[in-house]
C-alpha cells in the first residue's frame, strides 16, 4: 500500500531538538538551557490567565485585534501592520511559506538561529550560509550570498546561540544594500535585553523600507514561552501576505490575554532587565576568570567555549554540570560543539554554575 509522501525536502530536515530540562539523578534541577527568564511571567499575566477559564470553550477572536492594539499602544506602532502568531517561530514559518518555494534561496549567517534552516527547507527552498568572523554576522558576507534567487535574508539580532549583535548602522547598511526583491527578516527575540545605544531592534528600518520585517516574542523577557505568543511588524503588503496564509485562530485566547497583561507591567519588565544587567556581566567575568572563553553577549545567555583537551571538553563539562542538576544547552547542532550555552538564571543558579565550573576546571588538572 502506498502512503502519502511528504516533499523530498521535508525528509532531509533535521527536526529542531529543544534543550533538555531533566538532569538525571540530581536532587534539584536548574534549567538554564532555553533562554527563559528566571523571573517568570508578570503576576498580572498569571491573573489574566485565571480570568480566562470561562473562555476556553470559545474560539479566540481570529485577528488577535486586542493584542495587536496593546502592542501598538506600547511600542507606538500601527496595529494594522502587526501580525500575531503562536510564538515568533510561527511568524518565521509563515514568512518562509509566503516567500520561499522550490528554486528559491534564503540567506543567513553561519551560526544563525537554526529555525531559519528548518523553515527554508520546509518551504522547499535552499539555505545559503554566510561566513562569520568572531561568531558575529557580517553584512558584506551576507550581501555576497545574495542572488536573483534570494527571497529572504534572516538575521537574528542579537543572535542565538552566540549572543552577539550587529549595531544599528550595520543593520541599516544591510537593509540599504539589499536588492528590493529580497525581504530582510530582523528577528529581535531578545531585543528587550539589549542595553546598548548603538542597537535598534528594527522598527526604524521597517518604517524606512518596503522590504524589512521585524519579529518579536513574548517567550523571552516576558516569561510566556509556554503560551506561544509572538508578533511581527512589517510593511502592509508583507502583513497582508502573512494574514492570507496563517491559520484562522493561530493565537490562543489565553495567550493573548496573558500577553496583553504582561505588556502593562512595566515594573516587571524593568526588574527583568535589571536582573540581566547585573548577572550577565557577572557570569561572563567569573567564567572568564576560570580560564574559559565566553563570547561577548548582549542577550540573556552566554556561549562558553571549552578546551579541546581530554577531560575538559564541552561534552565533559555538560556531563559534570548535569550531575549537579545544572542543565545547559549543547550547541553542536550549530557547529559549535566546543561550546555550551548558559542562560542567565536566578542568583542561586548563577552562583552554582560558577562554583561547579570552578570545580570542573580544577578536577581536570
Ligand atoms: N528567534 C530566536 C533568535 C530565538 O532564540 C527563539 C527562541 N529559541 C525564537 C526566535 C523563537 O521563539 P518563540 O517561538 O518562542 O517566540
Automatic annotation (TrEMBL):
<keyword id="KW-0032">Aminotransferase</keyword>
<protein>
    <recommendedName>
        <fullName>Histidinol-phosphate aminotransferase</fullName>
        <ecNumber>2.6.1.9</ecNumber>
    </recommendedName>
</protein>
<keyword id="KW-0663">Pyridoxal phosphate</keyword>
<dbReference type="GO" id="GO:0004400">
    <property type="term" value="F:histidinol-phosphate transaminase activity"/>
</dbReference>
<keyword id="KW-0808">Transferase</keyword>
<comment type="pathway">
    <text>Amino-acid biosynthesis; L-histidine biosynthesis; L-histidine from 5-phospho-alpha-D-ribose 1-diphosphate: step 7/9.</text>
</comment>
<dbReference type="InterPro" id="IPR050106">
    <property type="entry name" value="HistidinolP_aminotransfase"/>
</dbReference>
<dbReference type="InterPro" id="IPR015422">
    <property type="entry name" value="PyrdxlP-dep_Trfase_small"/>
</dbReference>
<dbReference type="InterPro" id="IPR005861">
    <property type="entry name" value="HisP_aminotrans"/>
</dbReference>
<dbReference type="GO" id="GO:0000105">
    <property type="term" value="P:L-histidine biosynthetic process"/>
</dbReference>
<keyword id="KW-0368">Histidine biosynthesis</keyword>
<dbReference type="InterPro" id="IPR015424">
    <property type="entry name" value="PyrdxlP-dep_Trfase"/>
</dbReference>
<dbReference type="InterPro" id="IPR004839">
    <property type="entry name" value="Aminotransferase_I/II_large"/>
</dbReference>
<feature type="modified residue" description="N6-(pyridoxal phosphate)lysine">
    <location>
        <position position="220"/>
    </location>
</feature>
<keyword id="KW-0028">Amino-acid biosynthesis</keyword>
<comment type="subunit">
    <text>Homodimer.</text>
</comment>
<dbReference type="GO" id="GO:0030170">
    <property type="term" value="F:pyridoxal phosphate binding"/>
</dbReference>
<dbReference type="Pfam" id="PF00155">
    <property type="entry name" value="Aminotran_1_2"/>
</dbReference>
<feature type="domain" description="Aminotransferase class I/classII large">
    <location>
        <begin position="29"/>
        <end position="357"/>
    </location>
</feature>
<comment type="similarity">
    <text>Belongs to the class-II pyridoxal-phosphate-dependent aminotransferase family. Histidinol-phosphate aminotransferase subfamily.</text>
</comment>
<dbReference type="InterPro" id="IPR015421">
    <property type="entry name" value="PyrdxlP-dep_Trfase_major"/>
</dbReference>
Amino acid at each position: 500500500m502506498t502512503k502519502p509522501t511528504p516533499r523530498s525536502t521535508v525528509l532531509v530536515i533535521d527536526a529542531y531538538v529543544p534543550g533538555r530540562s531533566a538532569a538525571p539523578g540530581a536532587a534539584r534541577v536548574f534549567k538554564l538551557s532555553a533562554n527563559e527568564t528566571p523571573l517568570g511571567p508578570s503576576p498580572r499575566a498569571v491573573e489574566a490567565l485565571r480570568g480566562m477559564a470561562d473562555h476556553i470553550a470559545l474560539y479566540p477572536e481570529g485577528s488577535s485585534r486586542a493584542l495587536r492594539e496593546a502592542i501598538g499602544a506600547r511600542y507606538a506602532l500601527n496595529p494594522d501592520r502587526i501580525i500575531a502568531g503562536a510564538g515568533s517561530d510561527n511568524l518565521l514559518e509563515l514568512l518562509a511559506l509566503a516567500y520561499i518555494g522550490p528554486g528559491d534561496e534564503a540567506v543567513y549567517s553561519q551560526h544563525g538561529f537554526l529555525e531559519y534552516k528548518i523553515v527554508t527547507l520546509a518551504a522547499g527552498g535552499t539555505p545559503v550560509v554566510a561566513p562569520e568572523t568572531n561568531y558575529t554576522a557580517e553584512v558584506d558576507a551576507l550581501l555576497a550570498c545574495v542572488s536573483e534567487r534570494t527571497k529572504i535574508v534572516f538575521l537574528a539580532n542579537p543572535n542565538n546561540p552566540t549572543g552577539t549583535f550587529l549595531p544599528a548602522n550595520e543593520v541599516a547598511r544591510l537593509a540599504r544594500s539589499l536588492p528590493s526583491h529580497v525581504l530582510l527578516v530582523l528577528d529581535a527575540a531578545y531585543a528587550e535585553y539589549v542595553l546598548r545605544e548603538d542597537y535598534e531592534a528594527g522598527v526604524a528600518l521597517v518604517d524606512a523600507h518596503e522590504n524589512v520585517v521585524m519579529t518579536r516574542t513574548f517567550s523571552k523577557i516576558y516569561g510566556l514561552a509556554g503560551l506561544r505568543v509572538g508578533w511581527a511588524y512589517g510593511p502592509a503588503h508583507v502583513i497582508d501576505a502573512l494574514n492570507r496564509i496563517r491559520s484562522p485562530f493561530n493565537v490562543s485566547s489565553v495567550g493573548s490575554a496573558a500577553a496583553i497583561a504582561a505588556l502593562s507591567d512595566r515594573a516587571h519588565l524593568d526588574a527583568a532587565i535589571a536582573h540581566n544587567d547585573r548577572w550577565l556581566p557577572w557570569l561572563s567575568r567569573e567564567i572568564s576568570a576560570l580560564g574559559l572563553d565566553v563570547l561577548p553577549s548582549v542577550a540573556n545567555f552566554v556561549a562558553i567555549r571549552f578546551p579541546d583537551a581530554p577531560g575538559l571538553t564541552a561534552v565533559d563539562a555538560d556531563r559534570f554540570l548535569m550531575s549537579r542538576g545544572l542543565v545547559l544547552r549543547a550547541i553542536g547542532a550549530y557547529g559549535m560543539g566546543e561550546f555550551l550555552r548558559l542562560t542567565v538564571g536566578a542568583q542561586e543558579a548563577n552562583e552554582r554554575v560558577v562554583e561547579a565550573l570552578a570545580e570542573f576546571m580544577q578536577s581536570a588538572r
